[in-house]
Amino acid sequence: MPHCPDAHLDKASLRSEALARRAALSPEARETAAEAAAAHALEWLGDVKGEMVSVFASFGHEIPTHPLVRRLRAAGAEIALPVVLEPGKPLIFRLWEPGEELVSSRGPGRFVIPAPPETAPAVSPDVLVVPLAGFDARGNRLGYGAGFYDRTLALLRSAKRIEAIGYAFAVQELPAVPAEAHDERLDAIATDAGIVRPAEE
User: Fold this and answer.
1) What InterPro entries has UniProt attached to this entry (predicted)?
2) 99 in a labelled binding site
3) Which sequence spans correspond to the domains of the chain?
């Protein structure tokens, strides 16, 4: 994967552009898009009965994930949520049982994100649903800059086969996202407009 010397600068600019588009969506448009994206994601994933699927708990202007969680549970999947241990380390995942109340957990940077309680068992996901700031048609993901998912995907993929599907609004698609050596590509991206399947290089 070629290294782009101006990748950090380019990514910051592209991230701002994609996040501005995302923030401009109305509440009604967000909910409608979330239902459509959930349907597309389930269609791409196929039979998930008995699989452990990690889904992020959306916050701020992120695409709502509750429609996806609802469909995954109805299809027989078990749900996990990511937990930040400390900066620079991979994420861990805790089982989220139906009806279990989430608690505040340290997220990236100064963020606080919902997560299962510490008493919930740690699990290894079969499918990772990944949040995106932006993405391109080649499956390159633009995250929030902390590298948690790149480190986590690299670790998980070194141990077993895992599906990684990005999850975002269609308005977050960019013409191209600079690729760096440490960036982990996605197997697909589910949006309200459909599935983006990475092009082979």
Assistant:
1) FTHF_cligase (IPR002698), FTHF_cligase-like_sf (IPR024185), NagB/RpiA_transferase-like (IPR037171)
2) no
3) 7-193
Contacts of 50 (CB under 8 A, 6+ apart): 76, 77, 78
To the question of whether residue 167 is assigned a binding role by annotation, the answer is no
What would the CATH number be for the domain defined by 7-193? 3.40.50.10420
Whole-prediction pTM: 0.88
Consult the annotation and say whether 60 binds a ligand: no
DSSP H or E run through 107: none
Annotated ligand binding at 128? The verdict is no
- Please list, in sequence order, all residues whose beta carbon lies within 8 angstroms of the beta carbon of residue 75, skipping any fewer than 6 positions away: 42, 47, 48, 49
11 is in an annotated binding site: yes
User: What is the pLDDT tens value at each position of the chain, 201 positions in all?
Assistant: 344 444 544 888 898 899 899 999 999 999 999 999 999 999 999 999 999 999 999 988 999 999 999 999 999 999 999 999 888 889 999 999 999 999 988 876 677 889 999 999 999 999 999 999 999 888 788 887 677 898 999 999 999 999 999 999 999 999 888 877 667 888 999 999 999 988 654
Query: What DSSP string describes 160-187?
Result: S--EEEEE--GGGB-S-----TTPPPPS
User: Is 143 labelled as part of a ligand binding site?
Assistant: yes
Mean pLDDT score of the chain, rounded to an integer?
89
13 assigned to a ligand binding site: yes
User: 39 and 100 in contact (C-beta within 8 Å)?
Assistant: no
